[in-house]
Amino acid sequence: MFSQISLKFHKNYGVFFMKTKKILKALSHNNVEVHTDKYLKDYTTFKIGGRAKIFVCPKTIAELKRTIEICKSFEQRYFILGAGSNLLVSDKTLNIVFIKLAGSFNRVSITHPAPAGHPFNLEGNLKEVRKRAGGEADGVFEEHLKAAGEVLITAGGAVNIYKLNNYCISKGLSGLEFSFGIPGSVGGAVYMNAGAYGGEFSDVIEKVWVLTDSGEVKCFKKEELKFGYRTSCIMEHRFVILKAAFKLQQGSSETIKSTCKNNLIKKIAAQPYNKPSAGSVFKRQEGVVPPVLIEQCGLKGLRAGGAGVSTKHCGFIVNNGGATYKNVSQLIAEIKKTVYKKHGIMLKTEVVIVS
Ligand SMILES: Cc1cc2nc3c(=O)[nH]c(=O)nc-3n(C[C@H](O)[C@H](O)[C@H](O)COP(=O)(O)OP(=O)(O)OC[C@H]3O[C@@H](n4cnc5c(N)ncnc54)[C@H](O)[C@@H]3O)c2cc1C
To answer: What ranges do the domains of the chain cover?
Structure first.
């Protein structure tokens, strides 16, 4: 019996190994940047995560499209990695192709007013301009925007939110100050509809360009994406976020910078920024504030190995050093069980679990 099981294991291992080799070969034929030696703990803010068998960094839409096509042709699971700030990743070797957008996905530009002939200039999308202007002559919509002091900027999916905020400060663009201090990427922030201090990304999103599951590049208006609290229909449709356009207001760089700074000060005062974590582990629900319930259950500071419920903010689980995937999973399970027992409320996990 034992030898049968072990034979089966070796056979499966052989199949996985061959498949990985074939995927690597197909990817390298397409000149996509591929790695086999990446540890996910270096790509997550939790500092937890095992080795990715394949880690790909597409720099263009064509490279991304081809990477996904290759994964699909081998029935290989893949995962789009942002800045890794909302993830709990298994510390085993993961038979998943991790895709981290790079290169052209790191660009930020002003779309409107944009230089004439710029591909993102709204002039290039006359149909939409006319529609938004209520059928008025070409360019009228742009005039409306300018008069209202509004500016459209476009940021690629890989752009770091901190970089985006600094861009806005330098150009005097207001609207994204709420997000200063959220350690994610544009892709992850749009996907999660990240937010803080009464603002969220969907407040400023104008449109989002995605790669659909069938391999088409599509542009969706905000209203079509059904944004809600930390959610949108992007999740159900397995879209990859390529870039997003944000509608911002012209403002003073000094005021924007000072609002950003104040938001960060508030965050640092309230949250354990000095320890690795993935932010709030549980979602707020109607009338439910998870950190309050967790504290009322006496779980503040509860530990499992190197992981612990933060003593500063009970909604955070922190890595005190050497925390494992299992340690954090144990804490999540314990918190859910205890809160349910005491309050009759089943907490929903906000952190995305990859195992
Ligand atoms: C200290 C700290 C403070 C935080 N504070 C806040 C806060 O105030 N508010 C808040 O909302 N969040 C907060 N977070 C959580 C986190 O920063 C956000 O959820 C952020 O938006 C995640 O972005 P990311 O790029 O890191 O995504 P990741 O964590 O890498 O991924 C999250 C999900 O997004 C998907 N994804 C990423 N990029 C793309 C893409 N291009 N296309 C499609 N899917 C994609 C991933 O597949 C995954 O499912 C905090 C986290 C930390 C560590």
So the answer is: 2-100, 106-259, 273-354
Q: Is 189 in the pocket of ligand 1 (CB under 6 A)?
A: yes
**CA–centroid distance, residue 317 to ligand 1 (Å):** 16
Number of residues written out for the chain:
355
Per-residue pLDDT averaged across 221-225, rounded? 94
Mutate to test the pocket of ligand 1, among 192, 202, 234, 243 (most ligand atoms within 8 A of CB): 192
Establish whether residue 74 lines the binding site of ligand 1, counting it when its CB lies within 6 angstroms of any ligand atom.
no
Fold that domain 273-354 belongs to in CATH:
3.90.78
- Tens of pLDDT, residue by residue over 314-336, are 999 999 999 999 999 999 999 99
pLDDT score recorded for residue 150: 84
d(C-alpha 283, C-alpha 122), whole Å: 37
DSSP assignment of 283-349 equals: --BTTB-HHHHHHHTT-TT-EETTEEE-SS-TTEEEE-SS--HHHHHHHHHHHHHHHHHHHS--PPB
What are the catalytic residues?
Answer: 230, 280, 350
Kindly report, residue by residue over 236-266, the tens digit of the pLDDT: 999 999 999 999 998 999 999 999 999 999 9
Transcribe 174-186 into DSSP letters.
ES-GGGTT---BH
* 281 and 351 Cβ atoms separated by less than 8 Å: yes
**Distance in angstroms (rounded) separating the CA atoms of residues 308 and 251:** 42
Q: What is the pTM of this model?
A: 0.89
Let me know if domain 2-100 sits in CATH 3.30.43.10: yes
Residue 298 in this model has a pLDDT that exceeds 90: yes
* pLDDT value for 135: 45
| CATH 3.30.465.10 given to domain 106-259 | yes
